[in-house]
Amino acid sequence: MEYVVLGIFSLFLFICLFFDITILYALLGGLLLFTLHGIRQGFSLREIVRFAYSGIRTVRHILLTFILIGIMTALWREAGTIPTIVCHSTSWISPPAFLLMTFLLNCLISVLTGTAFGTAATMGVICAAMGASLGVSPFLTGGAILSGVYFGDRCSPISTSALLVSALTGTNIYTNIKGMIRSAVVPFAMTCAVYAAVGYITTVHSDIPNLSAVFATDFDLSWLTVLPAVVLLALALLRVNVKLAMTASISAAIPICLFVQHTPMNALPSLIVWGYTSQDPEIASMLSGGGIVSMLTVAAIVCISSAYSGIFRQTGLLTGIKTAVSRLAYRTTPFASALVTSVMTGMIACNQTLTIMLTDQLCRDTDRDSSRFAITLEDTAVVIAPLVPWSIAAAVPLTSVGAPPDSVLFACFLYLLPIWQCITASRTRSHTPS
After folding, report:
1. 424: how many CB neighbours lie within 10 A of its CB?
2. How far apart are CA 420 and CA 426, in angstroms?
3. Would you state the pLDDT for residue 204?
């Protein structure tokens, strides 16, 4: 019966994706479906509501963080922080190094903003436009962008996925980031080598667009505008609480908006709530976004997915699958079982948040070391979700930059990371005494 229920839920998700309907409807339908299944098993409605609430409580602390992220990313746009970084970064690009720099620049912006979708809509769009002007295949550009935007989505201190993994596993986000950097060194170097080699082979010489001229019409692009990003990174390196670090960055951005960009004081409340918009269509297409409203859908997805987690745990809906996962972990490695599980949950869940939560629920008993398990989730569920072409984790960034769905095949970092970790885990197991 459990497999039938999960199958119907999967159908809900695919219908929403096929008809381009927000996935929230499928998640709400799933919540009703799992509630009815729980009642059929003999639980009362009050008990199921309590189960759902217990799941939401595990992530309640990151909901405030989502609001801060929305405020900060809007102010970074208005303060000229993102435009300045983008303009100075793109000056480093030469045609042979285009794919490599596309990957690295999207890594940089995604680490600073903590959002794959936001990075794709800003630096990703810019790189796609430059790629088109250089005659680079959208397939290649899209793959490099997808790799880059999820590099930071995985390991930024303000990434919603990194914060979610930290909350689920009860681990410190800065300790996790340290572990993520260690596990990513070799795959990152290999990815850079692949993009450098392919870029050299496929080079078409042309001029790089002058973005400074575009942004200078709306922004003062002085280095002072970078201060909010510097504050955030400095406090992150000092391991200051993420909420405090973001609050400090917001505090640094407000006076820059007022006195450098000359934003009217009465425009700030609207900016904070609704995000940044520009009257210039060219700038708007690259930069509009941020604000509290932009985070509401993400917050809703996390809340509903967390409710699932509580219901699944208390009703035993996933018990049979967990047993199979545990057997796989015993026969191979905990990492390999998490990798296989994340592939299956990613194909069913169609979004990153639910993929992370289902993989956590199914695999958490295979590894007693919570810190190591947090890195396992980061190296499987977080990067596997965007490799599923019909998942919103892949579809939204690729659609934003006008790249074809098969660009996931060239998102090298997202493949190389779990493959390298799988090899490493197998070697560790083979050298462990029985």
Report:
1. 15
2. 10
3. 61
More confident residue, 145 or 128: 145
Q: Cβ contacts of residue 170 below 8 Å, gap of 6+?
A: 370
Mean pLDDT, residues 276-281 taken together:
87
* CA distance linking residue 327 with residue 61, whole number of Å: 34
> Average pLDDT, stretch 198-227?
81
Give the three-class secondary structure for 380.
coil
Please report the pLDDT score of residue 203 as a whole number.
67
Structure tokens at 175: 């300790």
Q: How many contiguous H segments (helices) and E segments (strands) does the chain have?
A: 24, 0
Q: Which residue type does 348 have?
A: I
Query: Helix axis angle, 227-237 relative to 98-113, nearest 10°?
Result: 70
Name residue, tokens 């009362």. 44
Distance of CA 243 to the CA centre of its chain: 18
Query: pTM value?
Result: 0.74
How many whole angstroms separate alpha carbon 45 and alpha carbon 53?
12
For residue 398, which of 384, 387, 382 has the smallest C-alpha distance?
A: 387
H runs (alpha helix) in 91-226: 98-113, 116-119, 125-134, 138-155, 160-169, 173-201, 211-215
Residue 207 neighbours by CB distance under 10 Å = 9
Confirm if 243 and 64 have CB atoms less than 8 A apart.
yes
Mean pLDDT (whole number) for 298-304: 79
CB–CB of 377/356 below 8 Å? yes
Residues 259-269 have a mean pLDDT of: 95
